[in-house]
């Protein structure tokens, strides 16, 4: 692959994944784009940036021609909590934006498209513990509905147009560089910042809400590994289950208190509790392990040590 376009590069994942791709493929070969121009300076300073709305099909096609793009990492999306406040916006960006990307990719014969799915593709009637790869996909959020639809759409394009569309069902991603963009797992980032900066945090989920999570270095590693994987091995291309560890807010507090013993927590569950309650406790990712050798490096305590050290340096 010669030139890769990133959409939604300014978000929590894009702000790190785009730079990781630039390290591998070269700064000028990875074109960053976002609707917003308020992206981190590292992205603007290290390579090309285009202000691009994924709903603007003409500019999307022009950008692909101008930079001779042959791979796309499509990250532009509306996440679960913002999506429940504005489901029509979530449908428009997540579905119409993705259809635009797939259609332009089809017309321009793009070699590969990677678009993330989410644990939000599962719903309350999915088996909650060690949720299998192939299972009931019946979400109760608009965000989840869009994730199921784009997995199926990716399968359709792969089958009918012989394309190479890949995706992973990310768990909640925890990081310290860029704040998350309005999801249900955002508490797991805010808790670390408030633990370091204020010594206390009010959590919007109940203390016993178990959710699958992943630390950003593992999220980057998984995405790069899937992007580079041998296509002939991929039997579940558009929506791989991906797991690192599962955790409740209470367990996260206990992990933080090993480093910051005085850290105080309080709980005030809000509308996001219902979303979290519809998602699995834990994920079985054996297909990702078998088909592209996925294996995480970080468990909860290893992540806690690293993220607190990084936030203290800020
Ligand atoms: P984010 O909300 O942090 O960033 C999304 C980016 O998309 C933002 O920079 C925003 O400006 C941009 N955007 C929104 N509308 C756009 C449009 N019309 N055109 C172009 N850009 C637009 O999201 P993220 O956390 O970086 O997520 C990236 C992908 O990973 C998404 O598909 C998301 O569903 C998926 N995912 C994320 C997580 C997580 O915990 N962060 C978990 C599961 C799946
Ligand atoms: C969200 O909470 O919406 C995201 C996700 C798990 O997809 N972090």
UniProtKB/TrEMBL annotation:
Alphabetized SUPFAM superfamilies for the sequence: NAD(P)-binding Rossmann-fold domains (SSF51735)
Pfam families, alphabetized: Epimerase
Domain NAD-dependent epimerase/dehydratase, residue spans: 4-229
Example of a GO MF term: L-threonine 3-dehydrogenase activity
Biological process according to GO: L-threonine catabolic process
Homology family: Belongs to the NAD(P)-dependent epimerase/dehydratase family.
PANTHER family for the chain: L-THREONINE 3-DEHYDROGENASE, L-THREONINE 3-DEHYDROGENASE, MITOCHONDRIAL
Name by which UniProt lists this protein: Nucleoside-diphosphate-sugar epimerase
Organism expressing this protein natively: Dysgonomonas alginatilytica
